[in-house]
C-alpha cells in the first residue's frame, strides 16, 4: 500500500503523534481497519492458493495426461515427486530472498516463476519438458509456502494471529478445490488438461495488480532500520489500539531486535538454545505430511475410482469433498483465537484417527467389488479425515512455527520448518505406491491412523499454547541458552512458561 505524502518525514512514533496522523488512523472505522488487515492477508495468500492449485491439479488430470504420454504407475508418482523436490528447494531458498528482499517483494517476484512454470506446463509436449515445468512450479509453490506464514505472523495483532493464519489454509484448500473443478469443467475439451494448468496463472496476475496496495512486514522493516515505514505500517495495521499500545508494541519489537544479531548465520541457528523451537516447528510441519493427507490430494480420484465411481464422478467428488473442508476451516478461523491451538489439535487429530481407521476398513472389506454402501462409507470417511485435518494440521503447524521463532531468525527458521514439510511430503509420496503394494489400501490407512496418534502424543507432551501471546515473548518461553537436547525432550513447555 502506498503511504500518505504528509508522513514522509516521520522518523519516530512521537513525530507520528505530533503530526496528527496517528490520531486520524485511530479514529478510522472498525470496518476500514478490518478491511485493510484482511486485504493484506488476502494478497499474500494468493501465493498459497497457487500452491494448493499446483499440488491438487495432478490428481484430476492424471488420466488425460496419460492419453498424451502413456506413462507407467512409476511415472505417475514421479510427476508428483518432481513438484515436491522443487517445493523443497524453493522453501529452503526462500529464507535468503525474504531476508534480503523482504517478505512482500519475495512474493511479488515469485510470480515470475509462477508464470514460467504455468506456461511450460501448458505447452510441454514431452515428459522431460513437463518434469522441468513441474519443478519450476514446485519451486514457486515452495517459496510461497514458506513466506506467507511468516508474513501473516508479522503483520497480525496477537489477538487475531491465529484466525489470520487459518486464512492461509483456506486459500490452499480453495486452490485444490479449484483445480478439481477446473479439470472437471475442461475434462471433455481437447487438451483440456493444458488449459487446466494454464488458468492458475491468474493468481499471479491478480497479486501483481494488487501489490501496489500491499504492505511490507513491519518487523522486517525495523530489522533493516526502516523505522519510518515500519511505524506507519504498524499504526495502520493496529488502528484499533490506543497510541500507548502502539508505542509499546513498537518498543517491544525494537528491544527484541536490538538483543539479536543483525544477521544470524545458519551455523548460529543450530545452537542449543534454539533446539526446542526447531523440534516443535520442524516436527509439527513434518507430521502434517506423514498423516497421509496428500495421498487423498494427489490420488483422490484414483482412490474414489477404486471405491466404485467412474472417472468423471471421481473428479467431481474430489472437488465436492473439499467444500466441507472450507466450512471446517471457517469454524477453525472463529475458534482458534477463542479456545486456543491445542484444543483444536486434540479434536482434529482424534477425528483423523477415526476417519483413517474407517477408510481402511472399507478397503479391507471390499471383496471382489465395492458395494454401494461401502462406497458411501468410503466417501464419508474421506470427508471426516479431511475436515478433521482442516481443523488442526491444515493450518496450526504453520501458525505455531511462525509464532515461536525469534524475529531475526524467523525467515531462516521457517524455511527449515517448511523444508521439513516438503521432505516429509516427498517421502510420503515415494512410499505411497510401495506401501499400497505391501500393505494394501486398508493397511496403509491404518498406518496413517498410527501416525495421527503419534502426532497427538507429540502435541500433548511438547507443544505449548500460543494463543494471544506477543511473538516477541513466545520464544523466550522456549529458548534456554545452554539447555541440552535431553532436557528439551523430557521437560514440559508449560512448566517453562511458568518460569517466564
UniProtKB/TrEMBL annotation:
It is found in: Cell membrane. One of its GO terms (cellular component) is plasma membrane. SUPFAM superfamilies: MFS general substrate transporter. It comes from Heterostelium pallidum (strain ATCC 26659 / Pp 5 / PN500) (Cellular slime mold). Keywords: Cell membrane, Membrane, Sugar transport, Transmembrane, Transmembrane helix, Transport. The chain crosses the membrane at residues 37-63, 75-98, 107-125, 131-153, 165-186, 192-215, 277-301, 313-336, 343-364, 376-401, 413-433, 445-463. It comes from the Eukaryota. Belongs to the major facilitator superfamily. Sugar transporter (TC 2.A.1.1) family. NCBIfam families: SP. InterPro entries: MFS_dom (IPR020846), MFS_sugar_transport-like (IPR005828), MFS_trans_sf (IPR036259), Myo-inositol_Transporter (IPR050814), Sugar/inositol_transpt (IPR003663), Sugar_transporter_CS (IPR005829). Gene3D superfamilies: MFS general substrate transporter like domains. Residues 40-467 form the Major facilitator superfamily (MFS) profile domain. GO terms for molecular function: transmembrane transporter activity. It is a multi-pass membrane protein. This is Sugar transporter family protein.
Amino acid at each position: 500500500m502506498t503511504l500518505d505524502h504528509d508522513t514522509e518525514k516521520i522518523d519516530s512514533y512521537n513525530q507520528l503523534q505530533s503530526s496528527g496522523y496517528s490520531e486520524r488512523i485511530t479514529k478510522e472505522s472498525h470496518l476500514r481497519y478490518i478491511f485493510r488487515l484482511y486485504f493484506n492477508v488476502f494478497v499474500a495468500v494468493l501465493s498459497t492458493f497457487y500452491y494448493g492449485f499446483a499440488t491438487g491439479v495432478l490428481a484430476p488430470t492424471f488420466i488425460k495426461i496419460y492419453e498424451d504420454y502413456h506413462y507407467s504407475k512409476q511415472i505417475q508418482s514421479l510427476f508428483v515427486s518432481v513438484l515436491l523436490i522443487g517445493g523443497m528447494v524453493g522453501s529452503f531458498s526462500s529464507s535468503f530472498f525474504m531476508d534480503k528482499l523482504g517478505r512482500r517483494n519475495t512474493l511479488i517476484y515469485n510470480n515470475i516463476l509462477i508464470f514460467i512454470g504455468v506456461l511450460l506446463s501448458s505447452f510441454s509436449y514431452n515428459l522431460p519438458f513437463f518434469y522441468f515445468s513441474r519443478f519450476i512450479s514446485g519451486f514457486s509453490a515452495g517459496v510461497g509456502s514458506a513466506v506467507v506464514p511468516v508474513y501473516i505472523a508479522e503483520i497480525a495483532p496477537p489477538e487475531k494471529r491465529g484466525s489470520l493464519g487459518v486464512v492461509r489454509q483456506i486459500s490452499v484448500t480453495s486452490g485444490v478445490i479449484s483445480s478439481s473443478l477446473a479439470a472437471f469443467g475442461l475434462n471433455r475439451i481437447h487438451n483440456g488438461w493444458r488449459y487446466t494448468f494454464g488458468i492458475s496463472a491468474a493468481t499471479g496476475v491478480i497479486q501483481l495488480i494488487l501489490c501496489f496496495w500491499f504492505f511490507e512486514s513491519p518487523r522486517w522493516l525495523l530489522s533493516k532500520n526502516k523505522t519510518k515505514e515500519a511505524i506507519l505500517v504498524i499504526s495502520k495495521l493496529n488502528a484499533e489500539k490506543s497510541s500507548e499500545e502502539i508505542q509499546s508494541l513498537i518498543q517491544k519489537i525494537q528491544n527484541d531486535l536490538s538483543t539479536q544479531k543483525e544477521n544470524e548465520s545458519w551455523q548460529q541457528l543450530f545452537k542449543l538454545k534454539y533446539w526446542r523451537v526447531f523440534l516443535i516447528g520442524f516436527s509439527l510441519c513434518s507430521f502434517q505430511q506423514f498423516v497421509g493427507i496428500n495421498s487423498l490430494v494427489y490420488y483422490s480420484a484414483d482412490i474414489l475410482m477404486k471405491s466404485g465411481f467412474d472417472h468423471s464422478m471421481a473428479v467431481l467428488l474430489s472437488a465436492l469433498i473439499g467444500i466441507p473442508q472450507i466450512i471446517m476451516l471457517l469454524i477453525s478461523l472463529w475458534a482458534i483465537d477463542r479456545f486456543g491451538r491445542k484444543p483444536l489439535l486434540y479434536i482434529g487429530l482424534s477425528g483423523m484417527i477415526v476417519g483413517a481407521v474407517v477408510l481402511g476398513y472399507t478397503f479391507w472389506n471390499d471383496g471382489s467389488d465395492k458395494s454401494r454402501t461401502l462406497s458411501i462409507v468410503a466417501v464419508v470417511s474421506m470427508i471426516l479425515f479431511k475436515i478433521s485435518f482442516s481443523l488442526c494440521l491444515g493450518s496450526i503447524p504453520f501458525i505455531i512455527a511462525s509464532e515461536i521463532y525469534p524475529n531475526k531468525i524467523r525467515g531462516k527458521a521457517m524455511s527449515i520448518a517448511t523444508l521439513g514439510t516438503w521432505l516429509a511430503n516427498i517421502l510420503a509420496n515415494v512410499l505411497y505406491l510401495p506401501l499400497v503394494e505391501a500393505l494394501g489400501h486398508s493397511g496403509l490407512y491404518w498406518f496413517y491412523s498410527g501416525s495421527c496418534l503419534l502426532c497427538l502424543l507429540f502435541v500433548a507432551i511438547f507443544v505449548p499454547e500460543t494463543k494471544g501471546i506477543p511473538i516477541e515473548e513466545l520464544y523466550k518461553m522456549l529458548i534456554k541458552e545452554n539447555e541440552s537436547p535431553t532436557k528439551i525432550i523430557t521437560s514440559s513447555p508449560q512448566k517453562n512458561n511458568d518460569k517466564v
